[in-house]
Protein 1
Amino acid sequence: MPHKNPTLGDIIARRVGRRDLLTGLLATSAVAAIAPSAFGASAKGSPEGSRFSFEEIAHGVDETHHVAQGYRSDILLRWGDPIVAGAPEFDPAAQSAAAQARQFGYNNDYVGYAPIDATRGLLCVNHEYTAPEIMFPGVKQRQRAKETNFAAMTKELAEIEMAAHGCSVVEIEKGADGRWSWVRDSRYNRRITALATEIRVGGPAAGHPRLRTSADPAGTNIIGTINNCAGGMTPWGTFLTGEENFNYYFRGKLPEGHLEAANHKRYGVPGSGYNWADYHGRFDLATEPNEPNRFGWVVEIDPSDPAAAPVKRTALGRFKHEGAETALAKDGRVVVYSGDDERFDYVYKFVSEGRFNPSERAANRDLLDRGTLYVARFDPDGSGEWLPIVHGAGKLTAANGFRDQADVLIETRRAADLLGATRMDRPEDIEPNPVTGKVYIALTNNERRPEKTERPDQPGPDPANPRAKNEWGHVVELTNPDGDHAATRFSWDMLVRCGDPNRPEVHALWNKATSANGWFACPDNMAIDHQGRLWVGTDQGSAWSKTSGTADGVWAVETEGPLRGTGWMFFRAPVGAEICGCLFLPGDTAMTIAVQHPGIDGVKQWAPFGRESTFDDPATRWPDFKPGMPPRPSVVMITRQDGGKIG
Ligand code: FEO
Ligand code: CA
Ligand code: CA
Ligand code: CA
């Protein structure tokens, strides 16, 4: 059973004296959380004592992107760029799966970097999902995640979608002018797709009967990776990619009374958002009831070896992995933080059994196959515990249907339910700060959190998720004892509660110094620069007009000192896009920002357009702005005009 939540009264009583209470959320006059902004809507520089020194840009929405004055924003990589040697140039009117499998994929999400030297390195990029109504001529708007309107889809279009999913590895280099570009025909350039890439299975679930299918009777070799959202880089330079909403790709009905029925239901399978099952039977539950168990993992890719098979690391658990950022424990064990992005799901970390070997790279190859997965319980007094998800411990026994550790990992969510972990407001990126040792957790929103607990799987507010109908999200800061990422206890605090500080009913929490442009809603991807400063990208989805009224963007956020909890707006996305893939290259003189799904989310609410986008009639043609060219998800490279450090 999920643990009982304390009442709001208990919570208030136990948290007296904590910063959160002092600043007002749980007090009756919640507006005390912040004074109305002292600054107008115009851009301004950062105040005395700030760690940031750029001139803030303004909230707003239009068809292109904006960055703070004094910065360059170059389009580095676009959907369709011919990255693999011999790939054809992108032609939106003549797309093919064969071409797409060698071109940069759709909807760039996480961006990681493996440096080769000071001016060259390998960019590792996720391609999360596809939007056929805006990618292909003649495909009408569909209702996302609902089974409708695949009438115009064909096998070729579905396979273009499959080839546009997955990951890219692309060599990039810095020119004499300080600008970065991708390297044509580099031997490292590679696509990993949902269509054709063979992926090995590692860890306790490898070969398990529940992972076996007719195409793979050994349960060790999976075609493709899907819905690759955020990720992380390991200390040995490999790329971890999280499989997030894998349920959308499955259709059909399980055979009557099938043993996987409850498991699939807990993960929302079948999600029926795509019609790939019409052409590839493995996505049809009637044909392959175990296929969904082969997705929802973290996949490890070695960008330095284009011939190496990626590996699904099952020891890290199966859920809707948002990301997989790593840190080293004091004793050299490797820790991977990962959120399960679903309303009322959980925050996890994995601690390896072995230690990172800095002198012999190959010794780290299978480090992520053995270790302990934990799920977080946030206690009302500001402490918390990491609960081990280990077969045989507590309720994780045969009596509850877990025969072995593989069962526990395949059904990570149910295991976490039984352990009494804290049901969170959609955990997105989790970012350990390598300078301070603190860890930042983006809880993006949860408009379904009720005022009061009526069912145990949808509890009312708790201290770590303090707002009912949380449309705006918040950022929690976790502190490890002695800065040790392997510790099983932690303390936590609220960094910001997002949303408009000038609307009392929002119960936002920002530092008073935050300007009219410095606040944001729906934190998603985050990055820490090499000076240890936090940057947050947002994803409001179609709700942007309600949650903030501005397009998504990137904000710098103070985490220390008197300005803690102050945001500064640095970058703004074009209409309909969310921000992913914020990453600082070594030295902080270059920063990537992945702009995902331009022209798609909530464009109907943008008055100058006021309708849904299609291929022929998109809300924006960012970034090319050429007739006939649809909007293209792209990675933007930010540099300073004077070559200095960003921010
Ligand atoms: Fe793919 Fe949770 O964002
Ligand atoms: Ca995300
Ligand atoms: Ca991140
Ligand atoms: Ca999101």
Note: Residues 8-36+48-71+79-244+296-354+369-640 form a domain with the Neuraminidase fold (CATH 2.120.10.30).
Protein 2
Amino acid sequence: MIPLPAPNGIHARFAVLAPDVFRLRVGQENGPATPPSGAVVDRPAPEVSATVRRSRTGIRITTASGEFHWNGRTCAWELMDRRGLVAFRSRGGSTGFDHEGRPGFALDLADREALFGMGEGTGILDRRGTVREFWNIDVLGHAPAIHPALSSLYVAIPFALSLREGRAAGLFWDNPGRQRWDLGATDPRRWDLRAGTGIIDLFLFLGPTVESVVRGYSRLTGTMPMPPEWALGYHQSRYSYETQARVEAVAREFRRRELPCDALYLDIHHMDGYRVFTVGEGFPDLPAMTRRLARNGIRTVAIVDPGVKDDPRFPVLRRGRRRKAFVEAPGGTGDHIGRVWPGASRFPDFLNPAVRRWWGDEQRALLDQGIDGIWNDMNEPADFDRPDKTLPPAARHHTGDGVHPHAAVHNLYGQAMAQASRDGLLRHRPGQRPFVVTRAGYAGIQRHAIVWTGDTSSHWEHLREAVPMLLNLSLSGVPFCGGDVGGFLGNASAELFVRWLQFAAFTPFLRNHSNLGTRDQEPWAYGPEVEAVARETLRLRYQLIPYLYGLVRQAADTGDPVMRPLLWHHANDPVAVACNTQFLVGRDLLVAPVLEPGCPSRSVYLPNDVWYEFWTGERRVGGRPVLADTPLDRIPIYVRAGGLLPLAPVRNSTREVAGDTVALHLWPGPEGSLLWYEDDGVSLDHGTGAFHRRLITQERRGRTTRVGFGPAEGRFPSRLRTWRLVFWHLPATARVRIAGVPQESPGSPGVADGLLVVDVPQRADAFEVRVVGGSV
Ligand code: MIG
């Protein structure tokens, strides 16, 4: 790192990680040791060329993409792009430590600057004008009606994406203690960032596109690994399916009613007196149950909470104590004893690598009985008896790198637990992709687990809030996320349930879950009309799985989220930037969920492009709102002109063999592309080339449409035999050539006017389908 001149007592350094990615570290001389957060993935730093110029007052560091200025007397600093446009500016006197040694700095906010990301949060997409705290807490029912001034939730990710008139930049302050960001709430022109402990360790991203900022952040903190394909199926949970008989009955209902389902969940009642890793009397033969479920294509996921019952006869506790595996009380006077579901409990010190390993091994008790996935809850961690609902600030963690007070590492606890879970699964199910869902996390959580957004309420207000919440999580490096379908607290009405399911069908993690004592919420629980809509919704979801799976692979490669705010592709369109009620799935699919009760229609803003209504094929010119009909069985969906959307045959589980024909819908437009992706869905072999990927493009010029199938990449043989190309707005009389060969009467009989359907046999080499016909 490049040493920066600094006033007495301050120790400042700077590093150029890439021409557009920088690190600024400001500490105190003789300050306390800072724990490593583990958020940043260690990678050998490439040689980046930078010019360093020192002056009497400070230093200037210039790269191909931008320039950093630092004043050694006042600690003023700024980062600007090549053209001199400021991304971040901190005035003199603001960067440093207060009299209690707490770090902080302030940034100028520009006139039309909007701030996104920051992990899980309530409220709208743009966080400017609010106060955000980073301190993981268990909040029951986080709707604003219940907690009006809620400033933190279960997942703290101190990463922000700033957008100024289409120019994006990013900032990540790696500090897992408490942070408080005043995002222009007190002074609309000032973004004030403070932490309770530690140092300033900032990573700055110059952009200027949203994509480059989020990709840069994802490269730094790691992208998500490929989940098993079944993670994209429909999951059914409740607090709790209390007995084996009940779980098996639910599984049978799904199959009898031909409702797709890939996983059922066991909440805390499956345990013996809430003792972690045990199975209670309600489940007399769990191995037989998981086997029967598996035969029906249904996986079983079990909840695992951190609190270990302080019962001297409980073997997990004894083994943990022998290993000194628990977080110590302040002053090191024995283990901290808190209270959670099992009553008095101790908390594994997941920050210690040896404890993570031990815990991962304890999971074997569940794996041996056929449990397929782990659900980590209460890992903020929650501690019922304490006023702050978590471990004492001075509780002691023995990390791999010294002893640290809980206050300095709090936000890492849930993350480290998820890491223990995943790593344990990797060891004990070698060669298989782990499935872990977590409630708490910090920057980098995507490397370890799927995130679900905890205890929402069955209110319309909360369904509305789920859209920006998942979008901001997606912008925070967490592409695989979702929330409880139907809401957790309280009873969802039939209408709310349907609308929630229709929305969630387009979110990566699709799980129905509900609180203890609430009404049944399985898709059939609201009667036949709702069940029929639910079935169609789930079938559409399953048809979309290949499309989603391809996007998940892109997320794994780059960090590009599956679910994107409109601003991802339309950062220069102020209406798109401010949109809280719609989102994109990939580039081409726009979803406008119904978020209000009793509405026969809703207004949908289409960004500046041409769009087609998915259900009817109607053409709509964007750059303005349109009105969409919203009968109960419809969710408004639009496809971008030129878009390609694959729809697979319906399955009841991803475990069923997929049919060998995929319908590839193509909407007219100048250009479009799809990255088609397949692999075996379960193993780690995709990491060594066992996948099938090809770029499919569409180009329309005048009366000619070309569909290009690029060469197949990877050594996994495609399961497809036939591409059924469905061209919207082309007549069945159009002339078709496949790889140069003219086709006789290509149009399938019985297809509606304005749809041309062409079956194309799968082949591995590159080829083109060319269609001439139709109007311009
Ligand atoms: O304090 O395990 O968010 O999904 O059903 C409640 C019982 C504890 C909170 C989770 C919820 C789960 C519940 N848990």
Note: The CA atoms of residues 133 and 582 lie 26 Å apart.
